[in-house]
Known about the structure:
2 copies of one chain form a homodimer. By secondary structure, chain A is mainly alpha-helical.
Amino acid sequence: MAADEIDPRAPEPPYRQIAAALAEEINRGVLPPGRPVPSEKELVERFGVARNTVRSALAVLREDGLVFTVPSRGTYVRDQSVTDD
Amino acid sequence: MAADEIDPRAPEPPYRQIAAALAEEINRGVLPPGRPVPSEKELVERFGVARNTVRSALAVLREDGLVFTVPSRGTYVRDQSVTDD
DNA sequence: TTATATTTGTCCGTATGTATG
DNA sequence: ACATACATACGGACAAATATA
């Protein structure tokens, strides 16, 4: 199965819902620092959205300093991530 | 007339060429602070590219602090713009 | 209130290029 | 040559906010 509870009608757009979902996994340690975030393709299947939407979500995580992207390699979880909360 | 000298084969991708062209107009005062940048639709026609490409160019200008965007209104030239260079 | 036009926001699908392994 | 992954681009679609009539 796929489509991790993304609601296209919610006030929060899908790309932000996805960013929030991934951010929580990072904060919970499900995705530990240094480890790659699932590939765009995997995220596309998992959330049932288009690649562009997944890329927008990853852009949010980058801006928030939660991940960093290495071209042609992948997107990885940052250390630190003091994500106050 | 349209297509303000954008070269799809240049090493600089179109969205960066467009961002550079607009940045120069801002720095020259052709687009003074407080005034709206041409709408996305107009920029599409003027540079002969897709809207997504125009939006990418505007995103660059926002990151550089040259403009700010008001949803449903438009994108405006910022004050200050100390664009060291 | 309704209708229309404009503008930005978001999303989809597809395609090509480049880099890595 | 092939698979994977990101970067960029195209075209099309609909929603939401704004302004005006």
